């Protein structure tokens, strides 16, 4: 089996503490733009309400304009999240600050003579400039790891080639359907609840495809039962029995009135 490994550093948290000034700076870095944040609204509100901390979203004027203009077009959940972001755009002040920075890609971690982290070298993908962020504590988070099985088609980004939202673009000569969900299908976006909801959607699509592509001519074990003269009831026949029991039960105010003998409904 061939595995394709893809790892992205989605976010890291750097902290700088100056004991002489009682000054703490904690930037949250992301190489995504502000439109791709994966926070929940609960997480954001709690962060912006922390006492004695000034947390701000630092974005360009262009991103701020686009973010503000997008609000009326968004669905309710995304709209509420975006409104919280817009409300907290600015520059942090005070002794304890938290900055949300975007378009930053960590390039290098520099250490001091004792081997402790001293700073992080960043590339600002929006301006193209290199930035040096003094740092005394670095917490990093790897984005995701996707394994693409040998034979599964890949696109130009070395990700699974999707035909639509749930199905992989397979060769027409292969009648089998291949499905994918979550980050392996669409890249790193959304939070856990989003991938959970997407997996349910994909499972429903699989069930729907299965139901629509069942061959009615396939008799399975029916031929063997007939050969051995074993009485049996087909699925379609059972549905007719079920309907008759419900209709019979409705006349006496019950959910159903079950048949009590096999012979009463068996058609030979």
From TrEMBL:
Q: Name one GO molecular function term.
A: oxidoreductase activity
Which cofactor is recorded for it?
A: FAD
- Supply the InterPro entries for this chain: FAD/NAD-bd_sf, Ferredox_Rdtase
Q: Does the keyword Signal apply?
A: no
Ordered alphabetically, the record's keywords are: FAD, Flavoprotein, NADP, Oxidoreductase
According to UniProt, the name of this protein is Uncharacterized protein
Q: Which organism is it from?
A: Caenorhabditis japonica
